[in-house]
Amino acid sequence: MNDRSLRIGIACYPTYGGSGIVATELGIGLAEHGHDVHFLAYADLPRVHGASRVQQHIVEVSAYPLFKYPPYDLALASKMRELLEGEGLDILHVHYAIPHSISAYLALQMSPHSKAKVVTTLHGTDITVVGADQAYREVTRFGLLHSDRILAVSEFLARETRETFGIDREIVVAPNFVDTDKFRPGPRPPGRPPVLVHVSNFRAVKRPLDVVQAFALACRDDATRLRLAGDGPELAPCLELAEKLKVRDRIDALGEVQKVEEILADADILLQPSGTEAFGLAALEAAACGVPTVGYVVGGLPEVVVDGETGFLVPFKDVKALARRTRELLDDAARLEAFRGAARDRAVERFCRRRSLEQHERIYFDVLADGAGS
Ligand code: GMT
Fold it and tell me: Which of 76, 34, 67 has the alpha carbon at shortest distance from 51?
């Protein structure tokens, strides 16, 4: 591999989970490999504080009475242009198609001397929900077609993208990854009651109400606890449902957790019955901690969780099956142990951080080589 140091711009949403985590962890890793990384986002990215060879640029959107909707995409394009010209970026890697890929296109148009290449990573709802919406469909397609490389976090998402937008270009699968040194199995103190965990932003798409229902069905009369990590609009309804089902006293609502690896390392099973999931980063992080996932067969989740080996995937909306599989695992210590080992091994072999960093560096050097002769 070419070992030249690159100047890489990374645009992302400053979110606690999903694409925000993937983008920031990727950038920090690339900087550790000797590249200079510039993050662009509309708010601070606490994870990058103190990292060397990393700078962050917060995109300010000025208000004006005429603007009912301040144009973030334009402010972002202007900031991107500044970095393309001022820092001489080689790569502009945008995470989540909307509006980042369109802003990148605009920024390149405004920087005629820049030879930077645009890489767009698709994360999920940018294609399956927002991008598929008639209001954004054509502009998303435009952003994709004008990216020099399109990456998707799963085979599922690559397929969905081709079908939704009628694109027959190559889409490279660059799966989510996990730091398997940080996310690792922890000691389960002997004798402590089993612990189920759910980690999400508590939006309807994550179906956390199904988690509470399955917990109530599977663990009606025992001491098993359910930990809910994260916050969002569905959390309060979940706790109301738990009261109604008389399991509230065995549920710990932890709110937004900074060190999710500690929560996962102390759990036995992750309950993750999302309605759609392009990949399922929480399931991967759990696997790295030796925690099997029980969820629905949706989207790219089967690429992360192998049914019957590293977890169980049941038909969508079948809460009874979710509860049954959970109970089965809790009652079969040998099987749970086998799943735990298999989940950890698969995370290390297929989805470790080093492998992903090398894949991204390869993609960057390839795309730069493509453009070198033109
Ligand atoms: O829509 C979300 O859940 C947020 C989104 C994001 O961009 O943060 O998550 C998506 O990206 C993650 C990281 O690539 C994937 O692991 C998630 O599966 C994906 N979520 C969905 O597809 C619903």
Answer: 34
Contacts of 274 (CB under 8 A, 6+ apart): 200, 205, 206, 207, 280, 295, 296, 298, 299, 301
- Domain hosting residue 219, numbered range: 195-350
Condensed to tens digits (0 to 9), the pLDDT of residues 163-184 reads 999 999 999 999 999 999 999 9
Is the CB of 132 within 6 Å of ligand 1?
no
For residue range 267-326, what is the model confidence (pLDDT) as tens digits? 999 999 999 999 999 999 999 999 999 999 999 999 999 999 999 999 999 999 999 999
In this prediction, residue 191 has a pLDDT band, given cuts at 50, 70 and 90, of: confident
Pocket test for ligand 1, best of 13, 19, 101, 121 (most atoms within 8 A of CB): 19
Ligand 1 atom nearest residue 281's Cα:
16
End-to-end alpha-carbon separation of the chain, Å?
21
Q: Which of 206, 198, 69, 197 is nearest to 124 (CA)?
A: 206
Q: Is 203 helix (H, G, I), strand (E, B) or coil?
A: coil
Composition of the chain by helix, strand, coil, percent to 5: 45, 15, 40
Helix extents (H) in the chain: 18-32, 72-86, 100-109, 125-128, 134-145, 155-165, 208-218, 235-244, 260-265, 281-288, 301-304, 319-331, 333-351, 353-372
Q: Is the CB of 24 under 6 A from ligand 1?
A: no
In this structure, is residue 182 part of a structural domain? no
Which residues does residue 37 pair with via DSSP β-bridges, in sequence order?
A: 8, 54
Q: What is the pTM (predicted TM-score) of this model? A: 0.95
Q: Is 4 strand, coil or helix? A: coil
Alpha-carbon torsion (207, 209, 215, 217), positive or negative: negative
Pocket test for ligand 1, best of 123, 127, 203, 296 (most atoms within 8 A of CB): 123
The verdict on 108 and 164 lying in the same domain is yes
Query: Is residue 18 located within the same domain as residue 115?
Result: yes
- Cβ–Cβ < 8 Å for 165, 132: no
Question: Is the same domain home to 172 and 202?
Answer: no
Is the residue at 188 inside a domain? no
In whole angstroms, give the CA distance from residue 155 to residue 219. Answer: 35
